Amino acid sequence: MTHNYAPSTRARIADLNIGMRVETGTYSCLTYHHQDQWEVFNYFGCIKITNLFCEWITDNTGAGTLFQFNYTTVLPAAVGPFPMGAVSASVAALVAGSRVVMLGGAVATAHGLTVATGGYSDVAVTPTILGGDGHTGTIGILTTTADSTGGTARCVLTYVPMSDGAYVTGNALPV
After folding, report:
1. Domains of the chain: which residue ranges?
2. Does pTM surpass 0.90?
């Protein structure tokens, strides 16, 4: 016996189990993994992050690029950026489908890299609470040590709102 669910039902089940989803869209690693900071998401209110990762759409190239997620608070006071974990191992040779994942838990925990074959994440994520009632801010990416020389990626965030009206928007980073 086969049970089929309408697309809207499937989407609602996903929202209830993994949280709301927002992403940047595909962008050029050559442009944005260039030893600097880029704001990829805006958050409003208090949210529980259930997953935050950067996924390579095409093979990444470079020489030892390190990757880190961080956050900045705009309201109630402008502060940051603050790390959301320690920098990852080198992302220079990641293949399409590979991910850098913010693991949550202790801030000193390094971001996890998925297996180099792509398309499989073998790391567990601890949910993280960000913001507060009336807070606004950004989540950014910082790359260091070396530039990526090619490839494309996108950042994905799943979250659950924890204060009235809380939400997240993605910033489009053009290819």
Report:
1. 20-170
2. no
